[in-house]
Amino acid sequence: MSGIVFFATEHHDAVVEFYTEVVGASVWLEQPDCTILKYDNLLVGFCARDETDDCGTVTFVADSRAGVNAMHERVGDAAREEPHLNEKYDIYQFFASDPDGRTVEFQSFEHAVDEV
């Protein structure tokens, strides 16, 4: 069994373009007003609506700090901060915003973790 997280979006096309063209996700399924994207083992759907769901955080996990740094370069002005070590969670991370203003996190774990 697997799962999908869905978000309502006021800027469907711009959001899908951000996650596919900038982040590197692929379109997994197109529905009449929803696009489901896949990035590694993450499935996330964005559905065209009159209001945006901007609660929560969409997190992408890289294998290393180098992957986080590369994504920081890719997202450019969408980044809210520089990549940094978060000692509390033992991760290397930064936050960005997608075209709806939704929080997007890019991180790597400092120590190996078991695969999901």
Summarize the structure.
This is VOC domain-containing protein. The chain is an alpha/beta fold and 116 residues long.
Could you characterize what this model shows?
The protein is α/β, with parallel strands linked by helices. The chain has a single domain (5-109), classed as 2,3-Dihydroxybiphenyl 1,2-Dioxygenase, domain 1, CATH 3.10.180.10. Helix content is 20%, strand content 39%. It has 2 helices and 8 strands, in the order E-H-E-E-E-E-H-E-E-E. Strands 1-4-3-2 form a 4-stranded mixed β-sheet, with helices on one face. A 4-stranded mixed β-sheet has the order 5-8-7-6, covered by helices on one side.
Helical amount among residues, as a percent range?
10-25%
The biggest beta sheet reads: 4 strands, mixed
Average residue-wise pLDDT: 94
CATH class membership: Alpha Beta
Report the CATH topology name: 2,3-Dihydroxybiphenyl 1,2-Dioxygenase, domain 1
Keyword list:
single chain, 116 residues, alpha/beta, 2,3-Dihydroxybiphenyl 1,2-Dioxygenase, domain 1, 8 strands, 20% helix, globular
Write the layout of secondary structure elements.
Blueprint: E1 5-9, H1 12-23, E2 26-30, E3 34-39, E4 42-48, E5 57-61, H2 65-75, E6 84-86, E7 91-97, E8 103-109
Parallel strand pairs: 1-4, 5-8
Antiparallel strand pairs: 2-3, 3-4, 6-7, 7-8
InterPro entries: Glyas_Bleomycin-R_OHBP_Dase (IPR029068)
Protein name: VOC domain-containing protein
Organism: Halogranum gelatinilyticum
